[in-house]
Design a protein that fits this description.
The protein is mainly alpha-helical and 181 residues long. The chain has one domain. Helix content is 81%, strand content 0%. The protein contains 6 helices and no strands.
């Protein structure tokens, strides 16, 4: 691959990695009145999306674990299939998450006491780590796809556990929040 192509891909990964968290953050803090002014109304048909998001996150977690087992057993093609499937599910999650939050106010956690502290620890760590998982996943997929295995392995040392954590805590956040949706 040419140096210009590499630079273009790295620039694209950087742009996507900045735009997605910024867009999601803006969406989360956008007042309902602004959404209404843009013609975006609450849609009750989308009220089951949090469960769908949990299923996507749980499925992503399972695919990542299977991909990890496949690569440990040197089943590269199987590993690649499961990793790309995990990426597709994560992408569907992100699109669906944005659609849901464009049409629904964020639910508030109503738990009290120690469970509240546990929930917020999981939620905050999930949010913080969901930001670097974007460039880490994109870069690791790119390095694997181009068979730059040495650099792929360096990225995956960080990408894999972070992605696993974000996928699993996405399910946990849903379980904590389920009574409040």
């Amino acid at each position: 691959m040419s140096n210009n192509s590499e630079k273009t891909i790295m620039r694209t990964i950087t742009i996507v990695s900045v735009l997605i968290p910024v867009a999601v953050a803006l969406l989360m803090i956008m007042p309902a009145s602004w959404k209404a002014a843009m013609g975006i109304e609450e849609n009750s048909q989308l009220s089951s999306l949090p469960l769908f998001h949990a299923v996507l996150n749980g499925s992503t977690f399972v695919l990542l674990v299977i991909a990890g087992i496949a690569i440990k057993n040197k089943k590269i093609s199987l590993h690649r299939t499961f990793m790309l499937s995990a990426f597709v599910l994560s992408s569907v999650f992100l699109i669906s998450y944005v659609i849901y939050h464009m049409t629904h106010e964020s639910a508030r956690f109503g738990g009290e006491g120690a469970i509240r502290m546990v929930y917020f620890f999981i939620l905050i760590s999930h949010i913080i780590l969901s930001v670097p998982v974007i460039p880490l996943a994109l870069l690791s997929i790119y390095r694997g796809w181009t068979n730059d295995i040495a650099r792929h392995k360096k990225v995956v040392k960080f990408a894999y556990p972070v992605w696993l954590y974000v996928a699993s805590t996405g399910v946990m956040v849903y379980l904590f929040m389920q009574p409040y949706y």
